[in-house]
Write a structure and sequence with these properties.
Blueprint lengths: L2 H24 L21 E10 L8 E2 L2 E2 L1 E3 L1 E10 L4 E18 L4 E18 L6 E22 L4 E23 L4 E19 L4 E18 L2
Antiparallel strand pairs: 1-5, 1-11, 2-3, 4-6, 5-6, 6-7, 7-8, 8-9, 9-10, 10-11
Length: about 230
Amino acid sequence: MSLHSRIFLPLAAALLWHSAPAMAADYEPPIYVESGPEYVPVEIGSSWYLRGDVTYNTNRPVNRFSWLGHDTDNSRFGGEVGFGYHFTDYLRADLTSGFVSRDKFSFDDRTDRFEAKNHVWSGLANGYVDLGTYAGVTPYLGAGLGFLYAHREIDIDSPTLGVKGDWSEHKYSFAYALNAGLSYRFTPNTSVDLAYRFLSAPDLQHLDMDSQTIRKGVNYHQVKLGLRYDLW
């Protein structure tokens, strides 16, 4: 064996010995770490909305009359507030409560005094079907069930008739509503709403001054203008 071989072989063996662990380390299988599920934030209040409307009664008030040369003072404006929920893009529902109308009659000739008041309020559960959106406008149909509440007061002081006293009544009556309208979303959360509503209480009594009899059935043909705000 030559001198070169005696020097080269031990050197090569030493290099292989020290490099073997490094080579083995280079071929270790990679370690895979599974990532956790993606975090998805939960929306609180999603699909809920608030609403507020101004109403106007277009038909003749049932308590409108003239007596003793005086006319009734009938307020046709009202309003309501409520909250609702979007079940789908086409189906929603809400609960509303509002003021429907006020009727007042006053007579005072400094001898005899007579005053009568009638206030009507509503409470309804409503459902709506949105019929799609066209150029930003969404037509819809709806119906509601609930009640009308009437509060009536009479105060009379008539020395001529020999009558003096006051009387009040609170009356709840079943009511239903039919709706048709249009809504337009002018911000991501806010829509303006224009609608017609037929509101009826078939059993609510009122005084018919023409026949001097008590009749059943009070109907309102209403125009509604309001806002809906989505709580996203």
